[in-house]
């Protein structure tokens, strides 16, 4: 059975100009021959991702969303440069092929990369996937280990210092995401002021071991080998990558991790099959991270609370576009409920924390 992640027809309002893209690719990517076809990968909520097929050649095009965008978000050039620099040191990156800032093509910068054909686990396991609980555990442990591999890269030795400023990273994250939430807040969502206050008051120092942080590392951004699903072959969506605190990156990642025993509201937010038999708990993943990285994590509550808050900001920024009619994507209508659920979850972490 074929479990390869496949695209769908392009959503209304997110169509691309085929003729303009065809002309650009003919000059930017040597050796293309054949009719150009475009489809869209439907699961993304931030940058838009399209399958570009020319003859037998498959590529992926990434562009910013339509409508209002946060000032520093959706930097296509930066994402392209990160992939270009990181690929030799982290083989899980897709191969970047071309980037342009010529807005005459589609009204925004965009880039093209090689498609990584493989299995991507979405909300539910694919029908007939047939993985045992032991297989699931092995897959998820391997996904965590590939995350640790990223954090272990010596970014200075690899010449990647330009990716960010690690000093003061935690403070900038807390203050920056708090500002973004206030700017994107609509009248129908919680104010999060108690959570932002707690994060500011309980803020830990930056971890002394700075690392490349992915910023959105989760199961549905990981590509598994179709011939051996226990093997990770790709890591996608590098738009938030920078240099910073690896524990903040871990907290951001596990904000998406909904366990089988979590409250029903949390399961309404579940995007990946993290609840199935064999899936490790968040704290089991934290323990494995400690073991594999050699980094002790005494107060994961803080990083989890921040991860939930940051996720709420991302959801709210997307909902803002829908609320103001800047996107027709009906998936986003329900995001207001997601913001409320994440506020409840973050408040629950604070209530049970010893910090």
Strand and helix layout:
Layout (H helix, E strand, L loop, with lengths): L17 H11 L7 E5 L7 E7 L2 E7 L12 H11 L9 E5 L9 E5 L18 H20 L16 H16 L8 H9 L9 E3 L8 E4 L2 E8 L6 E3 L1 H9 L9 H5 L13 H12 L6 H24 L11 H18 L3
Antiparallel strand pairs: 1-2, 2-3, 3-5, 4-5, 6-9, 7-8
Question: What would you say this structure looks like, in words?
Answer:
With 355 residues, the chain is α+β, with helices and mostly antiparallel strands. The chain folds into 2 domains: 18-114, Phosphorylase Kinase, domain 1 (2-Layer Sandwich); 133-352, Aminoglycoside phosphotransferase (APH), C-terminal lobe (Aminoglycoside 3'-phosphotransferase, Chain: A, domain 2), CATH 3.90.1200. 38% of the residues lie in helices and 13% in strands. It contains 10 helices and 9 strands. The strands form 3 sheets. The protein has a 5-stranded antiparallel sheet with strand order 1-2-3-5-4, with helices on both faces. The chain has a two-stranded antiparallel ribbon with strand order 6-9. The longest helix has 24 residues, at 300-323. The chain is globular and about 60 Å long. The termini are far apart. The relative contact order is 0.14. The mean pLDDT is 93.
Count of DSSP strands = 9
Low-confidence stretches: none
Q: What distance lies between the first and last C-alpha atoms, to the nearest angstrom?
A: 49 Å
Mean pLDDT, to the nearest integer, reads: 93
Derived structural class: alpha+beta
Biggest sheet statistics: 5 strands, antiparallel
Strand content: 5-15%
Q: Radius of gyration from the CA trace?
A: 20 Å
CATH class wording of the largest domain: Alpha Beta
According to CATH, the fold-level topology of the largest domain is Aminoglycoside 3'-phosphotransferase, Chain: A, domain 2
Gross morphology: globular
**How many structural domains in the coordinates?**
2
| CATH A-level architecture of the largest domain | Alpha-Beta Complex
């Amino acid at each position: 059975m074929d479990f390869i992640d496949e695209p769908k027809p392009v959503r209304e309002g997110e169509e691309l100009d085929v003729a303009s893209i065809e002309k650009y690719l003919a000059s930017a990517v040597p050796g293309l021959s054949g009719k150009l076809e475009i489809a869209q990968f439907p699961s993304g909520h931030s940058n838009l991702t399209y399958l570009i097929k020319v003859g037998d050649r498959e590529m992926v095009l990434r562009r910013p969303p339509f409508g209002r965008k946060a000032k520093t978000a959706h930097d296509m050039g930066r994402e392209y440069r990160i992939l270009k620099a990181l690929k030799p040191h982290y083989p899980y990156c897709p191969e970047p092929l071309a980037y342009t800032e010529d807005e005459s093509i589609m009204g925004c910068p965009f880039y093209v990369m090689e498609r990584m054909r493989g299995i991507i686990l979405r909300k539910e396991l694919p029908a007939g996937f047939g993985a045992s609980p032991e297989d699931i555990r092995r897959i998820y442990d391997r996904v965590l280990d590939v995350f640790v591999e990223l954090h272990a890269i010596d970014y200075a030795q690899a010449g990647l210092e330009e990716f960010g400023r690690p000093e003061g990273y935690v403070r900038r994250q807390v203050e920056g995401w708090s500002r973004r939430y206030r700017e994107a807040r609509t009248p129908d969502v919680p104010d999060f002021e108690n959570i932002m206050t707690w994060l500011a008051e309980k803020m830990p120092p930056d971890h002394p071991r700075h690392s490349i942080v992915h910023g959105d590392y989760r199961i549905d951004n990981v590509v598994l080998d179709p011939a051996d699903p226990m093997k990770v072959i790709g890591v996608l969506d590098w738009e938030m990558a920078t240099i910073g605190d690896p524990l903040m990156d871990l907290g951001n990642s596990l904000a998406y991790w909904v366990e089988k025993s979590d409250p029903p509201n949390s399961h309404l937010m579940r995007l990946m099959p993290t609840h199935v038999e064999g899936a490790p708990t968040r704290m089991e993943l934290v323990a494995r991270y400690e073991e594999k990285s050699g980094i002790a994590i005494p107060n994961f509550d803080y990083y989890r609370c921040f991860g939930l808050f940051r996720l709420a900001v991302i959801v709210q920024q997307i909902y803002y576009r829908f609320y103001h009619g800047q996107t027709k994507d009906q998936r986003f209508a329900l995001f207001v409920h997601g913001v409320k659920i994440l506020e409840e979850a973050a408040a629950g972490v604070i209530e049970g924390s010893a910090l």
